Amino acid sequence: MKIVRWVAVAGAVVGLVSVGVFFAMQSRGAADQYASVGAFFLALLTAATSLVTWIRSPRGDAGPAGPDRQGSTITVNGPVSVLQTGPRSKAKVRNTYKSSGGGSAS
């Protein structure tokens, strides 16, 4: 999978360099006109991609994407016991640390 990404990045670099060389070989006026037409088609492509993404997206309110929907991370020092019975249930955390008494916790 990483090779495919590197090939895509290399292809993009080659494409950008090729476009740069093409524009460098043109006069300023021609390069400006080519760039204007290219920007227009890039804007159309972006709008079409956004429209297709919006049409294919699931409908309905997904709700907030905060910690309540995605889960939370809690860091606890010391041994604990955690019981969670389902993906949307509340986790019950018990401290299982046995104090030897008389000492200070650090």
Structure, described:
The chain is mainly α. The chain has a domain at 2-56. Helix content is 54%, strand content 8%. The chain contains three helices and two strands. It has helices at 2-25, 28-56, 67-70; strands at 80-83, 92-95. Strands 1-2 form a two-stranded antiparallel ribbon. The longest helix is centred in the middle third of the chain and has 29 residues, at 28-56. The two termini are 46 Å apart. 0% of the residues are buried. The mean pLDDT is 78.
List keywords for this structure.
3 helices; 54% helix; two-stranded antiparallel sheet; mainly alpha; 106 residues; 8% strand
- Helix/strand-derived category reads mainly alpha
Total number of β-strand segments?
2
Output the radius of gyration.
Answer: 28 Å
In whole angstroms, how far apart are the ends? 46 Å
Query: What count of helical segments does DSSP give?
Result: 3
| Global mean pLDDT | 78
- What is the helix/strand order? HHHEE
User: Percent helix among the residues?
Assistant: 40-55%
Largest sheet: 2 strands, antiparallel
Overall spatial form: elongated
Main β-sheet, spatial strand arrangement: 1-2
- Contiguous uncertain segments of 5+ residues: none
- β-strand percent reads 5-15%
